[in-house]
Structure formats: C-alpha cells, structure tokens
Amino acid sequence: MYGLKVHQSAPDTICSRLSEIDDGKHTQIIVKDTVVVKKMDLLEDEKLKLALRDFSGTELTKLPTIPISLLPESKNHEVRRGLVDIVMQIFQPGSKGKTAHQMVEEGLDKLSGSVGAGKKTAMRTRVEKEMKVLMHHYLKGYLELKDDGTYAPTDTFREHPKTLERISSKLMEWANTTQIDLFEADIDGFECDGQDGDDVCPSEESDD
User: Fold this and answer.
1) Is the pTM of this model over 0.85?
2) Phi-psi sector, 77: left (phi>0), alpha (psi -120 to 50), beta
3) Pick the residue with more confidence: 198 or 79?
4) Where are the domains of the chain?
C-alpha cells in the first residue's frame, strides 16, 4: 500500500527519540538537529540496516518540509491540523476558494494517485465535517460555503494584517482541539461581535 513492500524477515522494532534514552534491546533513532542511529546490530532486515547507516549523520535542519498533510487514515484532529495551511490559502489575495475535493487532493499531494476513489470520498466527508465546525463556529463571519461547494471568504471579508493574524490564531485553536462533535458539543466559537478590542471585524477593516 502506498508504495510500501512487505518484507519476509522477522519484524524489527525502532524507537525514535528527541534525546538519548535507554530503550533496551531496540534500535534507536535520535532525531534532533542531526540524526543518530544506535544499536543497528539488533536489526534483522539488512536493507533497512544499510539505509539507516547511510541516514545516520543527516542534518535535519537542511531537509525540506513534507508537502503531504493528509493521509487516508487521518482522523478528527489529524484532519484539522492537516487543513490549517490549506485553509489559510483561501484568505490569500486572488484566491477563488477551495472545494473539499481540492483540499483532499492538496493534502494528499504525491500520494493522491495511490489512494482509491472510495477512500478519497471518505476523506472528503471528514474534511466537510471539520470544515462545517470551522465555518459555523471558529471563523463565523469570515468563511462560507458557496452553492458550488467552494469554501471562500465572505463578501464582508477584507484583507487586513490583524484579521489574518486572528484567523491564523483561530485555525490553530480549532486544529488543536482534542475532540469536536458538532451536534453535541457546546462550542464557544468565534464570532465577530466587535467586543474584542484587538479584533478587526469585516465591517471595520480598512484597505490601508
């Protein structure tokens, strides 16, 4: 699945840490600024052992970011976190908005061709569920769903540094909520009611 091969050798266990901790009889990968692989002699898979030997010493600070933000297995908070950057693009100048289908395709990135239609449909359903909460609670007054299925800024939205900062903050709050149930949770969501002195509501934003 997704280009991975099943090996016939006994399963190997690898522990990944940010600092060195004794994990007993398990190969350990320490990932901080530089990769350090320890106890490679415990691995049964020779190809894996060689690959890790080559990987050890790699400087992680120079690695590019991974564009994939969604996986078919993504659930709830994983979906929300994977959507943050994608949703933020909706509020950029010249954006025409995005459909749930486009969000799924962008989130999967290079994995898209390996994911079946059924799984994409299930992912789109999960995206729509989380976007509904975001639109009606956290970004009420700033994000809407158009008749053609496109999520786009409302007509009253005006690009403004404070507004974009507020939207970004609310996106992170939404993404890091551990559990959201639209039909049962009493969410104290974000509405632009003008009561927050630091908030710039759509009707108050200037083009400066």
Assistant:
1) no
2) alpha
3) 79
4) 14-62, 76-204
